[in-house]
Amino acid sequence: MKKIAWILSLLLVLCLSFSALAEKDGYYFTEEDGGTFRPLPINLEGGSPLPSTVKYNKNIKVYEDPTIRVERDRVEKSPFDVVYYYAIITIKDPSQLRTASAKDDFSASARTPVRAMAKRKNAVIAVNGDFCGSFNGNVSNNYILRQGTVFRDTVETNLDLLLIDEDGDFHILTADESLASIDKTEIDGKKVINALQFGPALVIDGQLVEDEKLLDRGHSPALSGPHQLNQRMGIAQLDKLTYMVICCAHYGQTLPQFRDLVMYVADVQNAYVLDGGNSAQMVFLNADINNINNGSGNGRGVTDIVYFASAWFKDE
Question: 3-state class of 135 per DSSP?
Answer without folding.
Answer: strand
